[in-house]
Design a protein that fits this description.
The chain has 496 residues and is an alpha+beta fold. Helix content is 39%, strand content 20%. The chain has a five-stranded mixed β-sheet with strand order 13-14-7-17-18, with no helix packed on it.
């Protein structure tokens, strides 16, 4: 059995075979001798050791023994001290025909705040990631302020530049790959993985890949941190407030007695039979943006790393899918109300009456129903009362609007002949009412000599609202007294 040695490389513990440890120590000693005359030999060796640790971890070597062959392969990738090319006194490079490494765009996960997009763009463009983030945040905030105060619109239609920048970031997060391997991290800066490339780049423009830091002024960095924390705190507040409001709207607050916001769909005739999917899609479309705000707010405030399963990307995909599905189902749901037909029916009144009585017929349970102030309209149907039945069901009740018009005798002195005109609107896109067939007037009112009884419309889950609207015009001679009794028996006399 081969002997093993436990060592720490760049703060990471590894177990090496004895011969693997021997060649690694010899290699590090050669590097120390090679760089002993540099200005910062200790930092150079720390960077090289970190590169070695990264290459070992990249191969999944953490819980097992590192072999001689694996250490040799890593040394071949990094290169030997004797292979490092020095520039001649005239500045000419002796690298020969060595092809330069092509710089590639990656997301920088080692220096990320959210998805590593800004830090990746900074590495590709050769600028500081803090400046890129600061420009991105300030541009988004300034454009939002400009749009809010109406100075001018720098967006398109209803989408302003803030939303466009957020969409751009999310798309870059999805499209641009992350720099996970050592070769990818080096290609992100435009140089190879060997120690010769590391040495030259440290001399030309030192970049500490371990900490992801640069020489940006500390004041700029502090300003960016403050802006980031403020933005994160605002997202946390907005996300929490939106979720609390959503819980009250969806399950906590009743729009009517026993009826929440989402359950209203069960009382309306829609173009889809099962409303459960519509409710789920509506809840997802509303809640996911606020959950995303909480997630991003926590990331910005507490600067924790994102899980490997990328919740931000998943939330974006789920929200886009649920939103478009909701739009499609929503359009299908309201197709019955794209078209409407106006109807009008007449019914004659007796000509030998002095007083006309109009009674609003009470409904069973009116004494315990909830009154809706000024009437509420749901898909065209006016609601006057909500009644919660003993069995737990809910019914909506509304009465047709009544208009009384008095007419004088004509120029020949002949009395005006009274009649009742019922005007209503029906919707028939899905055959809710057949065209050329009017609604049965007896379901709206009854006429018995001098008594006109107005019947209530009662809606439930079994008898759903179809968006119909009724107005009853009662035309009588000006000599006829009209007494109207409401559903509670209170009388009103119309003398004019």
């Amino acid at each position: 059995m081969k002997q093993v040695v436990n060592v720490s490389i760049a703060g990471v513990s590894f177990t090496l075979e004895n011969d693997a440890h021997t060649i690694l120590e010899q290699y590090l000693d050669e590097l120390r001798e090679c760089y002993k005359d540099e200005q910062t030999p200790q930092e150079i060796m720390e960077d090289i050791e970190e590169r070695i640790a990264e290459l070992l971890l990249e191969r999944g070597i953490r819980e097992r023994v590192v072999s001689y062959r694996e250490v040799s392969d890593i040394i071949d990738i990094l290169g030997h001290p004797g292979d490092i090319k020095r520039e001649d006194p005239e500045g000419a490079s002796s690298d020969g025909d060595k092809k330069p490494v092509k710089k590639k765009l990656f997301r920088d996960l080692s220096n990320k705040v959210i998805g590593g997009v800004c830090s990746g763009l900074a590495a590709y463009s050769g600028t500081d990631p803090v400046l890129v983030r600061l420009i991105f945040v300030l541009a988004a905030l300034i454009s939002s302020i400009i749009r809010t105060f109406g100075i001018f619109n720098i967006g398109y239609g209803e989408v302003d530049s803030f939303e466009i920048m957020i969409l751009f970031y999310l798309l870059m997060w999805i499209i641009v790959p992350a720099a996970r391997t050592v070769e990818q991290k080096c290609a992100m800066y435009g140089y190879g993985a060997g120690i010769d490339d590391m040495h030259k780049n440290m001399k030309a423009a030192p970049v500490n890949m371990r900490a992801g830091q640069s020489g940006t002024n500390e004041v700029v960095r502090d300003v960016f941190n403050v802006v980031t924390i403020c933005l994160g705190a605002g997202m946390l507040l907005a996300g929490f407030a939106g979720l609390v409001l959503g819980m009250f709207l969806f399950v906590g607050i009743e729009l009517f007695e026993g009826v929440s916001l989402l359950s209203v769909m069960d009382y309306v005739e829609l173009g889809v039979e099962n409303t459960l999917l519509v409710k789920i899609l509506f809840a997802l479309s509303y809640t996911i943006p606020f959950i995303a705000m909480l997630y991003l707010g926590c990331r910005l405030c507490f600067k924790f790393k994102a899980p490997s399963w990328r919740p931000g990307v998943i939330m974006t995909i789920v929200w886009i899918a649920s939103f478009f599905a909701l739009v499609v189902l929503g359009v299908k749901s309201v197709t019955p109300y794209f078209d409407n037909t106006n109807w009008s029916d007449d019914r004659a009144l007796s000509g030998n009456i002095d007083t006309l009585y109009i009674n609003m017929e009470p409904f069973d349970g009116i004494e315990k129903s909830a009154t809706i102030k000024k009437g509420v309209s749901i898909m065209g149907s006016k609601i006057d009362y909500v009644l919660k039945r003993d069995g737990g069901g809910v019914e909506f009740i509304d009465y047709p609007s009544v208009r009384i018009v008095k007419h004088a005798a004509d120029e020949n002195g002949l009395p005006y002949k009274g009649f009742i005109e019922c005007k209503y609107v029906t919707y028939d896109n899905l055959g809710l009412y057949q065209k050329n067939n009017s609604v049965d007037l007896d379901s709206i009112l009854r006429v018995d000599d001098s008594l006109v009884t107005i019947l209530p419309n009662i809606y439930s889950k079994e008898s759903k609202m179809k968006g119909e609207s009724f107005v009853i015009w009662i035309h009588v001679p000006d000599t006829v007294e009209v007494i109207k009794r409401d559903e509670f028996g209170k009388s009103i006399t119309y003398n004019e």
